[in-house]
């Protein structure tokens, strides 16, 4: 009997064999375990170019979810939005299935987006504007997107309710913080419900376009990592960028040029703009929940009092400042 595994790290040597057999690409010179995140990311270097291999964690996404993501990427590329699209196998399929110790895992090979992530330093206005412009164009173009595959929605349950369920057990010894969090969540839900009655714009969303997940190369920007994509509110999608800017201390500097450029491509109404600050707070709660969700295979040592002191203090400060 093999002892049960929560999450395995796949052998780069074995993956290289699979990739070389299954995909029509140049000889693989290097295949490196690049990043551990929501999924496992591998960087592949051939004699001609680079690729990204994503190994989805078991049970993280359904096959239909992944096909929907791939459909969206193909649609975007067809509409001149620079994105990292999936590469088909020799047999024409786009998803490779492997039996890992913990269960079935899906592999998808993606084109590599050349360039570097924005630094928001000397050229912060240009970088934030370029990001906002491509973000707005993406939303505008995707209003015509449809897929025969189903995928989960980026709704209130996804953004707030499920994360709260993950967080509450960790606050059982911090009753005042739990009371604050649940009370604040109720306020966010109330404000959310008031604004959603005003026809907030909805459509396909990237789901994780924080201040990263883009590369800039010679002034041109490319998007990647659509793993958290789905149907949702545009205000929530751009809130991810504002949240990232706030966490990094860049909000006042890069949010205005980002938003101006975004609205030049996809204008938002007053209710959408009011909703952004609500979704920023939901985003942070979602992010805490994500940390907890990943802790079974990433470790829990850092989910301590210091961590929760910092997270609760941030939310209290945002509440005091009306978000």
UniProtKB/TrEMBL annotation:
<dbReference type="GO" id="GO:0004413">
    <property type="term" value="F:homoserine kinase activity"/>
</dbReference>
<dbReference type="InterPro" id="IPR002575">
    <property type="entry name" value="Aminoglycoside_PTrfase"/>
</dbReference>
<keyword id="KW-0418">Kinase</keyword>
<keyword id="KW-0808">Transferase</keyword>
<dbReference type="Pfam" id="PF01636">
    <property type="entry name" value="APH"/>
</dbReference>
<feature type="domain" description="Aminoglycoside phosphotransferase">
    <location>
        <begin position="39"/>
        <end position="242"/>
    </location>
</feature>
<dbReference type="InterPro" id="IPR011009">
    <property type="entry name" value="Kinase-like_dom_sf"/>
</dbReference>
<dbReference type="InterPro" id="IPR050249">
    <property type="entry name" value="Pseudomonas-type_ThrB"/>
</dbReference>
<protein>
    <submittedName>
        <fullName>Homoserine kinase</fullName>
        <ecNumber>2.7.1.39</ecNumber>
    </submittedName>
</protein>
<comment type="similarity">
    <text>Belongs to the pseudomonas-type ThrB family.</text>
</comment>
<dbReference type="GO" id="GO:0009088">
    <property type="term" value="P:threonine biosynthetic process"/>
</dbReference>
């Amino acid at each position: 009997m093999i002892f049960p595994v929560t999450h395995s790290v796949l052998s780069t040597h074995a993956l290289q064999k699979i990739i070389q057999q299954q995909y029509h690409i140049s000889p693989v010179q290097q295949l490196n375990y690049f990043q551990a995140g929501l999924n496992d990311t591998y960087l592949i270097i051939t004699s001609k170019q680079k690729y990204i291999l994503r190994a989805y964690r078991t049970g993280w996404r359904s096959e239909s979810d992944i096909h929907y993501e791939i459909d969206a990427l193909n649609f975007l590329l067809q509409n001149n939005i620079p994105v990292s699209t999936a590469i088909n196998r020799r047999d024409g399929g786009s998803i490779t299935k492997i039996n890992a110790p913990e269960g079935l895992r899906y592999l998808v090979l993606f084109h590599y987006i050349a360039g570097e992530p924005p630094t928001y330093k000397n050229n912060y206005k240009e970088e934030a504007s370029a990001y906002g412009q491509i973000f707005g164009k993406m939303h505008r173009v995707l209003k015509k997107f449809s897929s025969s595959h189903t995928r989960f929605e980026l709704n209130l349950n996804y953004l707030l309710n499920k994360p709260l369920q993950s967080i509450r057990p960790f606050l059982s010894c911090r009753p005042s913080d739990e009371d604050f969090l649940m009370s604040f969540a109720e306020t966010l839900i109330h404000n959310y419900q008031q604004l959603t009655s005003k026809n907030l714009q909805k459509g396909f969303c990237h789901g994780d376009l924080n201040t990263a997940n883009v590369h800039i190369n010679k002034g041109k920007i490319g998007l990647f990592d659509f793993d958290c994509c789905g149907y949702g509110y545009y205000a929530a999608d751009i809130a991810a960028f504002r949240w990232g800017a706030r966490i990094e201390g860049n909000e006042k500097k890069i949010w205005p040029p980002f938003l101006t450029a975004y609205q030049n491509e996809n204008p938002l109404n007053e209710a959408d703009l009011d909703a952004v600050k609500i979704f920023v707070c939901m985003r942070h709660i979602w992010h805490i929940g994500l940390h907890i969700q990943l802790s079974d295979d990433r470790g829990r040592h850092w989910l301590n009092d210091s961590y929760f002191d910092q997270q609760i203090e941030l939310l209290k400060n945002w509440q005091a400042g009306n978000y």
